[in-house]
Amino acid sequence: MVEEAFDRKATPVEIPAERPQEYYGKLVFNRKKMFEYLPKKVYDQLVYAIENKKPLGRELADEIADGMRRWAIDNGARHYTHWFAPLTGGTAEKHDAFIEHDGKGGVVEEFSGKLLVQQEPDASSFPNGGIRNTFEARGYSAWDISSPAFILDQTLCIPTIFISYTGESLDYKTPLLRALNSVDKAAAAVARYFDPEVQHVISYLGWEQEYFLVDESLYSARPDLVMTGRTLMGHESPKNQQLEDHYFGSIPSRVEAFMLDLEIRCHKLGIPVKTRHNEVAPNQFECAPVFEETNLANDHNLLLMSVMAETARQHNFRVLLHEKPFAGVNGSGKHNNWSLGTDRGAMLFSPGRTPMDNLQFITFVVNVMAAVHRHNGLLKASIMSATNAHRLGANEAPPAIISIFTGTQLADILSRLKESKGTDLSDLRTKSEFSIGLSQIPEIMLDNTDRNRTSPFAFTGNRFEFRAVGSSANCASAMIVLNAAVAEQLADFKEKVDVRVAAGEDLNAALIEEIRALIIASESVHFDGNGYSEEWKAEAARRGLDCETSAPLIFDAYLRPESVDMFRKTGVLSEIELQARNEVKWEMYTKKIQIEARVLGDLALNHIIPVATRYQSVLVENMVKMRQLLGEERAAQLGAGDIEAIEKIAMHMENIRRLVAQMVDARKKANTIVSEREKAIAYHDNVTGVMETIRYHIDKLELLVDNEMWPLPKYRELLFIR
Ligand code: ADP
Ligand code: MG
Fold first, then answer.
1. Ligand 1 pocket by C-beta < 6 Å: which residues?
2. Alpha carbon distance 700, 704 (integer Å)
3. Cα 444 to middle of ligand 1, angstroms
4. What gap in Å lies between CA 321 and CA 277, rounded to an integer?
5. What pTM does this model have?
6. Which terminal residue of the chain has fewer beta carbons within 10 Å of its beta carbon, N or C?
7. How do residues 43-69 score in pLDDT, each as one tens digit?
């Protein structure tokens, strides 16, 4: 098995004859295809609806569906599906063939506007946190015209939202679209202080997807990887990342072939992947696209994750998107690079050329800071999950405390603004300290290489980088909270500035006053030091930041009055939706730990203990024979090491048996708890810790037992692709 894994050659990649710009978006029903397949009038109406976020009429939908079907069939599609992101994570699809009865005993390929626009998937198998039980049993999916349809595996995929009949969201896309609308409105209103022509503000997302690759045959021999996506046991390899020789090192040819194949497939699907490189841990890699509008970027990330899984299999790999597949080496995240820009081309987190541009820049940056300060616990909840919990708060990025890193230049500007006095801009201009603060920025390009890898939320020159997001997560979860929190903050800011202006204050002075107040109010979330240090944990607690580390308790942040209020004001999620979604979060948490605990128990009792026993009896037999041959005394001398090993093995096995029984007991008790929240807390408090201790004893056995007998591929095999 190991030999097979190491002898494998790279799978040849089918490289298109054309250049990327020719096959880019080939499998996407984009504007070019729409223009080609739709009557001009229909095309114009559709583009108008997309650009102005207007609903489609039924007649229009019929014509679009017809054009879309013809395009899809011309490109080899046989089925269609509504493609959506349920609360389980990942994506869901139910495929239907295009065929309908032709009335003559045969079939025709058809696709009506009704089927394009709306479907009723049998949704009872998706988690809903009780919404559909209390209200309506049905849910339906509806086309999101802002994200184009595409063809994946001969299936036309139509990006949709998924909601209950009473309008509650059962997915990630619905609240994401609402959050993007609310930040558009609130940010555009503030941007108009600086440019009255602004109509819309667009939210942008550029994700960086980290992942591990493992050889398929080794993966199949690890039930823990197959069932849970991570290794539940395994002693550290003598060499892992300590030499730092993997990061940006040369990419093995098998992996390079996989990456090339993935890139070609992504480009055909209109996913603008651009960057690929090795990551810190062995077998860990990253891929990142050019940033896009947040809703589309998020769909592209979801699509990438499924294309990645499939491409990997064709290269005899399995891709691991779990946040912490291996203990002792870095885990995987998905940095969310995020920014706001106006429809007039201004990027709101980029310093500009004039003092006014810079006042705009400072306005937006400071409001983001204030939003992160107000909702730091909620932002943490937005990225928390049973899997990401292994990564956060561990001795690697990022800590389980949300703070903002600004870098020295921005920190300097903020502190000068804070110290400056006066409210009148013309007056302030005469003060050298202030005029340096604003008008000098254009000359000193903000230094975006000033990086602090330990910060969960960093300003990086023209954007913010939310680094705490997990590699397997749907980015929408983080993007919903971030965009909504910033929308709320900007709306509050505008209200205060407007009150001042109505009272006769000069606009610039009003802005500066409010900016200064925000800098002071949100100071405690600003931290440029080492986020991994113990001192920071203590300091953050003193500052009143959310330092909770238990995932089930972190989820409570969604139901705090200030969160419920924020989601209500921005129209992103109602209290009922929030409650239902939290039920799902707790339930998912419990189920993940439950599965891991079962797999660990099975492996411990059925794989590890029998093998350890067998090896132990080899040692015992050897001792008996030594005694026969050499006599009691001499055998005791020469066999001291064996006796010690026999005892150690016995001790570890005894501990494993006892702890597995304890773990099973804890689970049984937890399973009787009715409240999802309390159950998740019980799993967190009483199960996860025991699992770690069981693992400790198994890993010790791995070092004692004959390598030939050990039933599972070891870290040194899993982690090094040759
Ligand atoms: P690094 O690894 O140095 O953080 P990468 O180049 O790997 O940076 O990834 C940066 C990501 O940030 C890319 O996806 C890029 O498109 C995205 N990005 C760059 N500028 C912006 C911006 N203004 N808004 C959103 N995303 C951005
Ligand atoms: Mg980054």
1. 204, 206, 208, 275, 288-291, 335, 337-339, 347, 462-463
2. 7
3. 21
4. 16
5. 0.94
6. C
7. 999 999 998 888 888 889 999 999 999
